[in-house]
């Protein structure tokens, strides 16, 4: 059984003050000129990097931790989850820091509705056993009346991706479905449409199964994930025709709140050729999120601040996404509402999420032109070349949809980024490459209360912020040698292969 503490739901609308609202995509008539004629020197990577200091970064981290504490009244601990006071104040902090930069940037907010789920209590009993690995899917609806349902388990045919896989007698019962092919959300929906009162999706691979149902559907039923190991004896019983009477109970809510992205763009620079860079402004509800993604958000704020000493040739657009932790909501919304013409102006998107994990590795997303929009690989190589030039080691990590770059690469925009590791385990080899401790998580406080100021490695954060400055300076000055944009394109190629959407497994 999983016990979640009952958090008070905050209906507060997280928007920054209304006078800051401006048109969203920064229409070009607001742009004064594309060739710089002022007195500032053209941005140069070495001098921009030289302006990055650990002191400035940690000053900002201190401010962010204080902001996270403003949620204590409702959550009993610091957090910057969307809908919380801590998140609202994070947005205000970003807005007020940008305001200090005068008219170097145009500021805009993009409010959007965000679906949020919370599970307060859950319980699954299969026959006479209580499986340890049973875990409610994110965004699951509750069982009927938020009460336990008592029903037999019914084995669903194949992998439960077709209506015909659901036998008639699943109606009023609990559907038992194997993982595979289609999304967890699709299975839950089909189970609901067939009249099931709950669903259990069991893993076809080793380990437990925690994922998300994704966009709510009226047909979704209360859904658990279960390890393949614990499912196996149950499947055998069902195949032998034995009855497995069960209890499913989920007390949860799924509701919609308002939150907002913040987007800024240099007034100067060619508005038809933008380099875009983003991090996420929100944390999970369990903690203050100073590494995830306070580090990336503050890195962007510091680079945006230092950039104002220079002129730029290409436009630079920074984004602070909201709702990343609920499933990349802000970046999805942004890209989905981008007209094709605007999509084409974004030459590339760089994602900066978790820049200073305490047990870090220098990780570069293995984005290649073979499977991602052309240009992604050139960006990957920019990071590789920089680490190499500094005599630092790096590793490639999968570019598999776990952060805000996802919507961009699905829609034809080249993307990439760097990270320092979340719940993955550092190898012996990586200990030799980066220091730290093999066998531990890269970030032992990932998504926990202890993701505070002490959870950011100063060296890694400084190094990576310098690299972010390098990436921004390089493309702000020139796109020479960087591939021209290909047409905005629909997502299907990537969609079929993506296992993750944000931190959650979707299939
Ligand atoms: C969200 O914003 C919309 C439009 O401003 C408003 O109609 C709606 O009531 C808001 N929802 C919540 C939950 O505050
Ligand atoms: C990077 O991705 C390419 C495919 O796009 C693959 O061939 C290569 O093995 C990957 N490298 C690593 C180190 O994962
Ligand atoms: C890079 O990794 C190697 C081991 O593969 C190690 O000997 C070397 O010291 C590392 N370099 C740095 C700068 O940490
Ligand atoms: C940051 O990481 C480096 C390399 O692993 C280590 O030497 C240093 O002590 C770490 N700093 C902190 C504050 O933990
Ligand atoms: Zn993150």
TrEMBL record:
SUPFAM superfamilies: PA domain, Zn-dependent exopeptidases
An annotated GO BP: proteolysis
Molecular function terms from GO: metal ion binding; metalloexopeptidase activity
Keywords from the UniProt entry: Hydrolase, Metal-binding, Protease, Signal, Zinc
Residue ranges of the TM segments: none
Domain named PA: residues: 150-232
Needed co-factor(s): Zn(2+)
Signal peptide: 1-18
Enzyme nomenclature, EC number: 3.4.-.-
Cited InterPro entries: M28_fam, PA_dom_sf, PA_domain, Peptidase_M28
Domain Peptidase M28: from-to ranges: 261-470
Family of this protein: Belongs to the peptidase M28 family.
Protein's recorded name: Peptide hydrolase
Protein species of origin: Xylaria bambusicola
Organism classification: Eukaryota, Fungi, Dikarya, Ascomycota, Pezizomycotina
């Amino acid at each position: 059984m999983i016990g979640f503490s009952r958090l008070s739901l905050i209906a507060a609308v997280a928007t920054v003050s209304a006078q800051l609202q401006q048109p969203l995509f920064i229409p070009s008539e607001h742009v004064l000129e594309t060739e710089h004629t002022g007195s500032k020197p053209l941005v140069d990577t070495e001098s921009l990097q030289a302006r990055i200091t650990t002191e400035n970064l940690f000053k900002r981290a201190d401010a962010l931790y204080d902001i996270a504490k403003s949620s204590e009244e409702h959550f009993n601990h610091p957090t910057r989850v969307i809908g919380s006071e801590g998140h609202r104040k994070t947005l205000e902090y970003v807005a007020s820091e940008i305001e200090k930069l005068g008219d170097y940037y145009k500021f805009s907010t993009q409010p959007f509705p965000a679906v949020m789920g919370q599970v307060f209590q859950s319980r699954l009993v299969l026959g006479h056993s209580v499986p340890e690995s049973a875990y409610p899917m994110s965004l699951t609806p509750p069982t009927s009346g938020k009460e336990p349902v008592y029903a037999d388990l019914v084995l669903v045919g194949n992998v439960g991706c077709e209506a015909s896989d659901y036998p008639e007698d699943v109606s009023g019962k609990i559907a038992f479905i194997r993982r595979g092919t289609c999304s967890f959300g699709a299975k839950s929906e089909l189970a609901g449409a067939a009249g099931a009162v709950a669903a259990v999706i069991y893993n076809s691979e080793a380990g437990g199964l925690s994922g998300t149902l994704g966009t709510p559907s009226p047909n979704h039923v209360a859904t658990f994930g279960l390890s393949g190991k614990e499912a196996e004896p149950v499947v055998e019983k069902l195949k032998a025709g034995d009855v497995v009477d069960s209890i499913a109970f989920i007390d949860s809510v799924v509701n919609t709140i308002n939150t907002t992205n913040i987007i800024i763009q240099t007034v100067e620079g060619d508005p038809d050729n933008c380099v875009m860079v983003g991090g996420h402004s929100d944390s999970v509800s369990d903690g203050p999120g100073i590494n995830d993604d306070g580090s990336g958000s503050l890195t962007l704020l510091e680079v945006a601040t230092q950039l104002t000493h220079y002129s730029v040739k290409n436009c630079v657009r920074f984004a602070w996404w909201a709702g990343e932790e609920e499933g990349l909501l802000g970046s999805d919304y942004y890209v989905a509402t981008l007209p094709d013409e605007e999509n084409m102006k974004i030459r590339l998107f760089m994602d900066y999420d978790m820049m200073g994990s305490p047990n870090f590795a220098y990780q570069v997303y293995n984005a290649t032109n073979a499977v991602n929009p052309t240009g992604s690989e050139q960006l990957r190589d920019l990071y590789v070349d920089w680490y190499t030039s500094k005599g630092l080691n790096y590793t490639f990590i999968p570019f598999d949809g776990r952060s805000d770059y996802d919507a961009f690469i699905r829609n034809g925009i080249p993307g990439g980024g760097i990270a320092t590791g979340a719940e993955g385990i550092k190898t012996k080899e990586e200990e030799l490459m980066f220091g730290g401790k093999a066998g531990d998580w890269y970030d032992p406080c990932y998504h926990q209360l202890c993701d505070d100021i002490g959870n950011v490695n100063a060296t890694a954060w400084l190094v990576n912020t310098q690299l972010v400055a390098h990436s921004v300076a390089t493309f702000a000055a020139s796109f020479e040698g960087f591939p021209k944009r290909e047409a905005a394109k629909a997502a299907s190629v990537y969609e079929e292969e993506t296992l993750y959407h944000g931190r959650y497994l979707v299939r």
